[in-house]
Every structure is written in C-alpha cells, then in structure tokens.
Write a structure and sequence with these properties.
By secondary structure, the chain is mostly helical. Helix content is 54%, strand content 5%. The chain has eleven helices and three strands. The two termini are 43 Å apart. Pfam families: Phage_int_SAM_1 (PF02899), Phage_integrase (PF00589). This is Tyrosine-type recombinase/integrase. It comes from Paenibacillus xylanilyticus. Keywords: DNA integration, DNA recombination, DNA-binding.
Length: 274
C-alpha cells in the first residue's frame, strides 16, 4: 500500500540525488508512520496531519528505539512534511517543522542498535559507481572500527605491514604500549582487501594504510570529517568511538568475558570503553 504522495516524494528525493538505499530507508519510515497514523487517526485526512499526531508517534517509537534511531525518524519526517508543505499538499503549516531532535544523555554508553547495524551493513555493500577508491577507503575505515574495535588514532597510524592475510581472515596488529592482534574475517575484511589492492595500483609508496594526497597519514580532523559525512548520509552517528563500543558489546553478547573484550580493545579497565 502506498503512502500519501509517495511517487511524488520519491521523485523529489531522486531529483536531490539521494541514493536508492536512502530512498528505500525514507520510504520504509514513512510507510511505518502512515500505518500508525491510519490505525490511530482513521477519520483524519492526510493533508490535515497535525504536530501532536507526529509527536505521539515518536513517543510510541521511543519505547524500544535508541536516540539515534528516533533522530533519524525525525529527520525523515522533517524531509517528508517539508516536501508536502512546499508543494501545497497540506491544508496548513508544516506540522513537523518545530519538532526537535532528542538530546543524548552524556553519561549513556552510545552503541548502535541491531537495526542500525543492519542499516550500516546495507550501506557498506551499496558501492557507488563514482569515486570508488574513496568509497572503499571509507568502508575500510568503518570496518576496522565496527569489526576490529580500532580507535581513530589507531586508524591514523595503521601501516600496511601491520596487516597480514590468513586463509579466512585478516590479522591486524596494533602496536601501542602493548601489542594486540585483531582478526577480521573475510566476509567483512573484503572491503579492506579491495582498498589495499586499489591503493597499491595507485603507486602510493607510503607505509601507512590511510593517506592524503601527499602520502602522509590522514589527520584526525580529516578522519572525523569522513565519519561525520557518512553519519549524515546514513542518518545516524557512526563515529569511531560508537563503532568501537558496538564492537565491544557484540563480543560480550557472543560470550566473551569482560577481560577478553578488554584485551581485544587493548584496554585494562572495561569502563574506559564508555
């Protein structure tokens, strides 16, 4: 079942150069909202959807969704209702315009929810047909954090010689105060392997894995910019610390002890993960 002005909204997103994966994500969210709206406001016309109705929907969703997921829903609803209002498809003003994103609790451990991890992995495999080298670079950076638990600083100074290819995995050696080896299995590691192949074909002789146009290690500012750009594209935050936290929680849920997870992260105190 289509939602109100669905084809027009999809055409609008396409005209704004949104990727197909993003359009599907936006459409799925609007379908979810409209299903809730039809159930709870069966006699109200779509063009008369009000701000209280949208707020009520978001409050219902907050019961079992993370702040990041709710903020993504708010962003999508902003986009949809701004489109309807600008095209004259609403009876009055934009009902979503004054709905603000949520404030995160600074003491809260920030990790990706299972649905966010699924969305992120879908994004990883949606390789664009332009700027392919940078696309694999970005996916390599994300994979090292999500599947390897690396920090932003470790990404910056990771060298090609620190990566060894085994039969079914990559072994990443992190040389800090204490060395640790991280295994990333081939189903995730292929983004890194592909990036390394492309980097070697560019005749970049730098020993570092991630470099700028002068073959120097990427700065922390550039690394944060890359993750910020990806976060905006996906619709929720995927910074190195969040991905590292997610890696840790995943390992813990797989049955690893706190000491084992701390060792994988290269830390002594489990609470430093937060």
């Amino acid at each position: 079942m289509s939602f109100y002005k669905e084809q027009e909204y999809v055409d609008y997103l396409q005209s704004n150069k949104k990727k197909q994966l993003t359009i599907r994500s936006y459409s799925d969210e609007i379908h979810s909202f409209m299903a809730w709206f039809n159930k709870n406001y069966p006699t109200t016309e779509y063009m008369q959807i009000s701000r209280p109705a949208i707020v009520s929907y978001l409050e219902t969703e907050r019961i079992d969704k993370s702040v990041g997921t709710i903020d993504k829903k708010i962003s999508i609803l902003h986009s949809y209702f701004d489109f309807l209002w600008s095209q004259g498809y609403l009876a009055g003003t934009d009902p979503a315009s004054k709905i603000k994103r949520l404030k995160k609790n600074a003491s809260e451990t920030i990790v990706l929810t299972p649905s966010e991890q699924t969305n992120l992995r879908n994004w990883l495999v949606d390789i664009p047909i332009t700027k392919v080298f940078k696309a694999y670079r970005d996916r390599g950076l994300l994979t090292l954090c999500l599947s390897g638990g690396l920090t932003g600083r470790e990404l910056q100074y990771l060298k090609l010689d620190d990566i060894a290819q085994a039969r079914d995995r990559l072994i990443i050696s992190i040389i800090n105060e204490k060395r640790r080896d991280v295994a990333i299995y081939n189903e995730d590691a292929h983004f890194i392997v592909k990036y390394i192949e492309m980097k070697k074909n560019r005749f970049d002789e730098s020993p570092y894995l991630f470099t700028n146009h002068n073959s120097k290690p990427l700065s922390q500012r550039v690394i944060q910019f890359i993750f910020s750009k990806i976060s905006k594209e996906i619709g929720f935050q995927v910074y190195p610390r969040i991905l590292r936290n997610t890696f840790a929680i995943n390992k813990y849920n797989e049955g690893y002890s706190s000491d084992d997870v701390a060792a994988l992260l290269g830390i002594v105190n489990w609470n430093r993960m937060i």
